[in-house]
Amino acid sequence: MPPSQPRVALLVTCLVDMMRPSVGFAAAKLLEDAGCTVHVPAQTCCGQPNHNSGDREGAKALGRTMIAAMEGFDFVVAPSGSCAATVIKDYPQLFAGDGAWEARARNLAERTHEIVSFLTRVMGVERVTARCEGTATYHDSCSGLRSLGVKDEPRRLLATVGGLTLKEMAEPEICCGFGGTFCVKYPDISNKMVSNKTADIAATGADLLLAGDLGCLMNMQGKLSREGRAVKARHVVEVLAGDTTTPAIGEG
Q1: CB 42 within 8 A of CB 69
Q2: CB of 163 closer than 8 Å to CB of 134
Q3: Do 184 and 229 fall within a single domain?
Q4: Which structural domain, as residue segments, surrounds residue 108?
């Protein structure tokens, strides 16, 4: 059982900080509504791009900063499956055998959660009071799904959003082609993957695209816009928090 009013550190993530702060505000609202005291400690990148590119020492340098920043909190929560998975899965391996940092990395990993899984699995949230008129489809981001097992949790909460109808894609679990540095290293392959994804999105007839990772959403929204499709993208926490005033991704 979590403490009655857990102290939660919000791992904002680089993309949210620089590209979509509304996701951070929505995440904080959901955590506060669940009974948490939310803190936003000074933080840097978690080191995921370095780690994925083979820069082990660069990733460890950023990891040490993150570990130190997040100590003293009951939980650390991120509105991103990929950043959460970096801390939960990669940090313990990255710092294995590295003196005291190994124990500190493992401790942080044990306290870290992706936000929707934290709300449902840890805080026991079963419904939200938000309202969003329209039809949405949900994309399962690779890290959240494959590394952390986040699948049913966002769908269960979205089912409680007033006015919202959820229509599944034929292949919601297929990668959108973003993959962080993957889309830069292999642009032709990435473009083909996101083209397949946008066709699947369009086939649902949904007017709203939701996901739990901003990078995936920006990638898919960019392709949808270039194809002239009217589908709008939002991070799932924005809808769960009832944010209906912030322009959709790519509009503001």
Answers
A1: yes
A2: yes
A3: yes
A4: 7-122
In which element (H, E) is residue 183 found?
helix 182-185
Instruction: Extract the tokens encoding 76.
Output: 């650390």
Contact (Cβ atoms closer than 8 angstroms) between residue 217 and residue 235: yes
Residue 1 lies inside a defined structural domain of this protein: no
* Residue 99 tokens, joined: 């003196």
| 213: amino acid identity, one letter | D
Report pTM: 0.95
- Residue 93 in any domain: the answer is yes
Question: Residue 39 corresponds to which amino acid?
Answer: H
Q: Domain check: are 144 and 216 in the same one?
A: yes
Helix axes 214-226, 187-204, angle to 10 degrees: 80
CB 79 within 8 A of CB 17: no
| Assigned token pair, 72 | 């003293």
* pLDDT tens figures, 48-75: 999 988 999 999 999 999 999 999 999 9
